[in-house]
Amino acid sequence: MWQKKIFLFFVIISTVSLLLHQGGHWNWNMKSFHFGCRAVPRGPRSKLTSVVFLKTHKTASSTMQNLLFRFAERHNLTVALPIPGCGHQFCYPRTFTSHFVYPHNLSPNIITNHMRFNKADLQRLMPANTTYITIMREPSSMFESLFVYYSQYCQSFKRVPNASLEAFLDNPWRYYRAEDKDSMYARNTLTFDLGGDKDRPAKDEAYAKSFTAQVEKTFSLVMISEYFDESLVLLRHLLNWDLEDLVYFKLNMRTESSKQSLNPQLSAKIRAWNSVDAYLFDHFNASLWRQLSALGLDCVGREVQLLRQAQEKLMRTCFAGQTALRSAAQIKNKDLRPWQPNGKVDIVGYELPSNISVGAWSPPDVCLKLIMPEIQYTKVLLRSQSIRYRRSYQYRAHLPQQAVRTVVRHPQIHRIDPKPAVVPAPVTKTTSSPKTSGTQSQSAMQEPH
Prior knowledge:
There is one protein chain. The protein has helices at residues 2-21, 23-33, 61-74, 119-125, 139-149, 155-158, 165-170, 189-193, 205-218, 228-239, 264-273, 275-295, 297-319, 364-371, 374-397, and strands spanning 45-47, 51-54, 79-80, 110-111, 131-136, 221-224, 253-254, 325-326, 347-350, 413-415. The protein is an alpha/beta fold. Strands 3-4-2-5-6 form a 5-stranded parallel β-sheet. It has a 3-stranded antiparallel β-sheet with strand order 7-9-8, with no helix packed on it. The protein has a two-stranded antiparallel sheet with strand order 1-10. The termini are far apart.
């Protein structure tokens, strides 16, 4: 009898310990699923795991890429990565082809490194049920970032005296050459990344309209970097993901000293020079707000608040109250130093404190991956996936011939929604207007990249 009592005691202790250990995880998870959002289905749901994310330039896309890398690792998915000859991009600015994908990464679930979009080849590479996502940024701030970031690489920018943005915009045709190797950074970069014609005349509105319709038909979600957190809420509902799948730290940010403020005249010149990009952004910015309104702005506000609370908690866990952001020169761990494009731009990064504690949901490895720059993370993934491939190959080599089957793609991840938690009190949120001028949401305060 006493043996049964002792056994029961240990079962109770173990159960309580497990619940305490997972408390934060389930708390966030349940809250994020039971807001009563309009048009949100109930019952069992599966996470969608086949994703193409077109990583555009200077749009907060590195932060989004990091989020997808971590999702793939957490769920044992395969990420398509570039062959060594392409570096950490798919041989950009060449148009994407599956020949640029590392052989061990074929039959992938996710693809997210920089490329010039090629729908036909991506459809041949990815599963039929793949979801296509990309991200855009207001053309004025995007072009200012491009001008500074690539000032020593893009010939159109290098020709400008004193690296003056004003001088370039006064007479772009004096400096711009469409045939230059890196000319895609100097005009309609977003259009080029999407596979369009960056050099269409500004008056050709018919092209801008037809190309925008083509993009809208292909991509299930076009995120807007100025409303990054709100975009993530739409992403979560589109893919049936959990809150912890969306937590991020901002990556590849410039220091304030390397940014140039833009007056209305400069902004107007930038939009005129990048007319197709401007048309695309205006269309998809309005589209984003229609989708947010359909979901319910109150619901979106509550989910954004929960996401930011989760990030703040994780930031305290990972950095133990210390200053998180540092210049590259201050980061001792070279694997965490972000790439510096030139001497005029200081890209800040992170370094973990030596006394980091192990949290229930955020062990040091999670903190490390949250802050790992794109180039280093791509190498880490390539190494781990190559090891996994070799082990799988060795295992199949020892199987009887009749037992070897064609590799099946990773199935969708099935999960049952937890029981409803107590719905939090409504949160008063001042949601930004769909207009891009004026005040932006708090999520817009990051420096996209």
